[in-house]
Amino acid sequence: MSTIQMLKAAEKRLKGHARRTPMLTSPFLDDIAGRRVLVKAECLQHTGSFKYRGAWSAISALPKEVRRNGVIAYSSGNHAQGVALAASQHKIKAVIVMPSDAPKIKIDNTKALGAKVVLYDRETESREEAAEKANADGSLTLIKPFDDPEVIAGQGSTGIEIVFQAKDLKVRDAEVLVPTGGGGLASGIALALKEYAQLLRVRTCEPQDFDDYAHSLRAGRPVVNKRLSGSLCDAIITPTPGLLTFPILNRLAGPGMVVTEDECLHAMALAFHRLRIVLEPGGAAGLAAALFHGDQIDGDAVIAVATGGNVDKEVFEMALAKFGDI
Amino acid sequence: MSTIQMLKAAEKRLKGHARRTPMLTSPFLDDIAGRRVLVKAECLQHTGSFKYRGAWSAISALPKEVRRNGVIAYSSGNHAQGVALAASQHKIKAVIVMPSDAPKIKIDNTKALGAKVVLYDRETESREEAAEKANADGSLTLIKPFDDPEVIAGQGSTGIEIVFQAKDLKVRDAEVLVPTGGGGLASGIALALKEYAQLLRVRTCEPQDFDDYAHSLRAGRPVVNKRLSGSLCDAIITPTPGLLTFPILNRLAGPGMVVTEDECLHAMALAFHRLRIVLEPGGAAGLAAALFHGDQIDGDAVIAVATGGNVDKEVFEMALAKFGDI
């Protein structure tokens, strides 16, 4: 279980490595939302998403003699790039297991960040089998994407920054809207808020049909989505909450929020015009909830975490074509 | 003449108002440039450009009894929005004189930031006549876009941030590439570097055919461009260097750099993919110089100021269509 002590230790290890991302605002977004909107721009983190924080935290927490043998991770997206960069900065080997039909650009990026990419065929092989082959002698340590105490602790450093940035902007009492897949970031932030700012409260934000956290928080136990793939919000699609993350959010988060894909695309276009940042659809789910579901939010201000900005130009062009006229 | 004391005083007044914009990096950009590239993301400043700094500085420096009567500015672009927001935050009137054929979105934005917009017909009227009418009793103070010591001092706060952020990233000796129109930002930064970091040196960056600074620095006296309009880089198009800014840059800047429009569009696409920020063409001129004219630069690292991100979606789409495949 992640504790506040682990979180504080992770924050200390991340100093000088993770970027302190800015908290952005725009009077135009305030007008749409009907309240002040603060946007924590984690799309500006190294490798374009908050995932770098958890990856660095987990790798830096390994005992030296374990770490030097290298790490392995499964991911076709943001976690892959976070682990690849954090490993290369530690001067250790990273093996990333990716499906052979992953976008070429993501494979290329992960390689360019210094990782060895092992491809597997989704039709004929499981990623676990592929990983076992790549780690035959068992020397590589698996870095999980969310259900790991040190990963949660690393993501929690985002929460500590939010607390102080909100205070600077005179926001003391607000909901913190977090795009949520497995729940690593949301639970890390929730732990930070509990320690430092009890008047700030996490709300998970998910796309329609992939709202396992919303269902699970309502039911009080983990529920599995019926659909497992086929969303523009690929970065935050998981079948069910994590074993470590769900109990934290069940205890500390408010009711889950749900947004449509079109609302995410609309939020991306507004972030382009009003904040001059690039968001991917899943990374815009919190901002979409802030702008278009204000009736479910309490308070004069709201904080939306913009979790990532790794988006193909075609998807970005779609957002501008649909919602870019203002 | 701007002195370092004015600059320090402006920086103090801007504390808690101007955003400390992040210094971004990407290993992919380092690879293209063949050296480390640091990008000062002023597109994330309030109103989407560094202009807010100078506007706030000049307005906050006015004697109270003068300031309370309000301010006036000519601009169809970033300076208009900077003055509008800074004035509304001081709770004073701002009148912005804009050509009636300015993009509707820019007129709407300036109004939405609380300014009174006075339109004039470029065919039948000069902006000075329009301004005279709008300021018949002479009570409004003109806030110039660059040739004003307090504006230069305000823009210089960007330079002070650059010094400390470069130091954090262990960069001591580098050229600082600044997209340059009238030269307010470049001269403010040059003054800051002279005081705090003599191993950092400003280089002006301009689009082809609008390279009055490059010509003027070579000639040692102000030279006027032959072309006066018709560039995608509208934010940094001025006919000739400023009376206050040119002597500063003539003394402190290196040779001027010149980039093409296509290089600016290319830099915008790379900033989209690699930094997840939105740049306008003129705002990307420094990054374009860093990436594509490295042969004219000295040192293991280079700092590019990304000055603004107020771009129409059509121009952004053009950049992605031309250079967005990576």
UniProtKB/TrEMBL annotation, chains A, B:
Domain of life: Bacteria
Domain Tryptophan synthase beta chain-like PALP stretches: 16-308
GO molecular function: L-serine ammonia-lyase activity; threonine deaminase activity
Cofactor: pyridoxal 5'-phosphate
Keyword Transmembrane helix attributed: no
Pfam families named among the record's database cross-references: PALP
SUPFAM superfamilies per the UniProt record, alphabetical: Tryptophan synthase beta subunit-like PLP-dependent enzymes (SSF53686)
Gene Ontology biological process: isoleucine biosynthetic process; L-serine catabolic process; L-threonine catabolic process
UniProt KW keywords: Lyase, Pyridoxal phosphate
PANTHER family reported in the protein's UniProt record: L-THREONINE DEHYDRATASE CATABOLIC TDCB, THREONINE DEHYDRATASE, MITOCHONDRIAL-RELATED
Annotated family: Belongs to the serine/threonine dehydratase family.
UniProt-recorded name of the protein: Serine/threonine dehydratase
Organism: Neptunicoccus cionae
